[in-house]
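[Q] Does anyone have a clean structure-token version of this?
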Amino acid sequence: KKQTDRIIQNEPDAVLIAPFYYEETVRLIEYCQQRKIPFVFINSNFQDNSKLSYVGQDSKQSGYLAARLMSYSINQGSKLLIINISRVLDNHKHILNRQTGFESFFRENTNHNIDIINHYIRDTDKNSISNSLNETFSKLSQIKGVFVTNSKGYKIARFIEENRLQPLTLIGYDLTEENVKYVEKNIIDFLISQRPVEQGYGGIMTLFNHFVLNKRVQKEQHLPIDIITKENYKFYIKH
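[A] Here you go.
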């Protein structure tokens, strides 16, 4: 809220938004609409027809891809966890879209007799996560895969390592330093990269093309969905 106030007080000519927080995003959109200020979304495609453009992944399709990757390493009758780690999940539409995409894959591919359990962790400190996961894993047997819908996969990987729960397929998002640590240990099997640098660059270039070059820009600019593993992660790290 404080940062949104600052943006409005500065009377910008354009706004680049990563719409993490629903209420403040709506407020910022309304401000831009009233003053005919162009705005571009990155990271999450907030559904608003007045936006100039969106630059980023197709969130639902990335979840669908994660499910396909998961399907290669599990057997019929396996249980899968979808873990959402967020204090306010409803604010993060891209996370919900990833979950929808993941579930859609197994629903549409009926040859997979898979039981999917959604697990929502609201308190994100280590002890709360451990207590929550201990309860879940003690109740459920045959959990063969875990899909973490945001960049917090390392927190689940740490729990898996400490409790020796492997073999278990773990898929998450984002090439962060914490996640790379567990990719190197073969605890996180796959990371899905969102190309954050390209999102930011593409968003600013979109505004540049609109303002300076008077070019017509695409409403949706989807970036590739990269699959990161132990074998290729180093090629994605910029030094």
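[Q] Thanks! Anything notable?
[A] DSSP finds eight helices and ten strands in the chain.
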